[in-house]
Amino acid sequence: MLDIPFHHQLPMSEQIFQSFCDWIAWGVLKDGEQLPTAQQLAQQWGINPRTVQKALDQLEELGIVYTVVGKGTFVCRQQDLAPLKAYAAKQLKDAIQKYRRYGITEAELQSICTSIFHDSSKENPSK
Q: Which CATH code is given to the segment(s) 12-75?
């Protein structure tokens, strides 16, 4: 069962999108695996199916999933995870631009990123 701890800091569709990216990158969802329908997920999460579909459409636009009419939505082969890396790079770029406006220097950002990277390596040593 795919669970999302929804919070109010991001739109629900963005939280769903990010969760699917994580599940695919972590191997929770495998190459070629069929996803539950938007209706099934919406019912499970207690939200509007259009919210789920918006996230699934975004995943498909980036080449992370594909839809076969009459069959369902499936995880694309992710040998190099290029679409997920491109998404992560965009998120990082947006965050860096935001924090530069707050006056954080390049050296401070590098220090923060290095610390986060090392902390996350301890949490998930296989990466």
A: 1.10.10.10
pTM of the model: 0.68
SS3 annotation, the chain: CCCCCCCCCCCHHHHHHHHHHHHHHCCCCCCCCECCCHHHHHHHHCCCHHHHHHHHHHHHHCCCEEEECCCEEEECCCCCCHHHHHHHHHHHHHHHHHHHHCCCCHHHHHHHHHHHHHHHHHHCCCC
CB of 74 closer than 8 Å to CB of 65: yes
Cα separation, 22 vs 3, whole angstroms: 12
List, for residues 52-64, the tens digit of each pLDDT value. Answer: 999 999 999 988 9
